[in-house]
Amino acid sequence: RLRQQYFLAAASLQDVLRRWIRDHGKDFTTFAEKNCFQLNDTHPTCAVAELMRLLIDEQHLGWDEAWNIVTRTMAYTNHTLLPEALEKWPVRLFQQLLPRLLEIIYEINARFLGIVSRQWPGDVDRLRRMSIIEEGHEPQVRMAYLAIVGSYSINGVAELHSRLLQEGLFQDFYALWPNKFNNKTNGVTQRRWLAWCNPRQSNLITATIGDGWITQLAELSQLRPYADDPLFRQQWREVKNANKARLAALVKQDCGVTFNTQALFDVQVKRIHEYKRQQLNLLHVIHLYDRIKRGDTLNWVNRCILIGGKAAPGYAMAKLIIKLANNVAFMVNHDPAVGDRLKVAFLPNYRVSAMELICPGTDLSEQISTAGKEASGTG
Predict the structure, then answer these.
(1) pLDDT tens digits for 343-366?
(2) Structural domain containing residue 25
(3) Same-domain pairing of 162 and 43
């Protein structure tokens, strides 16, 4: 995983530098005015040390000149308040795989802790808390801290999330550099998730109110008078059924499970994590299965439940949740007593192209994360 992260970050930076040198030679005075590197969570944070390596070792800039460029071009977006989701890599692994980057990280940290010491003289606890290197039995490189120290901008993805970063997770850094912190609220654009991936509904809306809504979302309010129009409602239902048929075909192809389009499509697709509570969803599936087995089906609505998402490579509990989902699905789908009342599928390799079919075909989107843990919750 670390090798993958380094490869992608290093290749991107080297490509940008190659093009800069082609067009401007080795004059980097305006480089920071023309380039910005977005660190989307901690995964590409190797870029901070790698850009230093490229500028110092290969372009022969001095440390201060290189650091001035790095800290004017890197911007860090944090996506979670959960400390366990912030990447840390063992110093031992860095030494083995990326020894030069580790040397640079140590130098960045030494200079940074000098700034902290001057700001809060004698505060050893603060130095320990803010150090990029976490001491202990197995010293770790705190990638989020490297991102903060190396960036000119740090943002969360919702107003509350950004405030909680400042008051909690990164409060020491906020006390040092309040002007670095800001908010960028996540959004779901209608251009991608309606106009592009839901062409039938898009065409119906455009035929009804024109296409201005594609760039001006508020124009969708013009649909309100049509909510009671029998012809429009019938057309809307036909679009939904067609979209459910597309999703059912994907589930059949990838999972081998048949979804009846007349059933309620109940969907939870997002990263697999305990706080997102896929296990609570599965307990509900077991409850529904138990109701069927007991004959408690009065006012029953047939339901097709789809769960999708990926687990972080080292997150054992998340992988157990995936196994549980597949085991529950196998039990439910192979019980002849259940029939079409209940179907369950876990979609492998959840991805954006799959979501472009899932989103238009979903009847019920499960948003059941533990309160206060979701950064923005666009899914």
Answers:
(1) 999 999 999 999 999 999 999 999
(2) 2-183
(3) yes
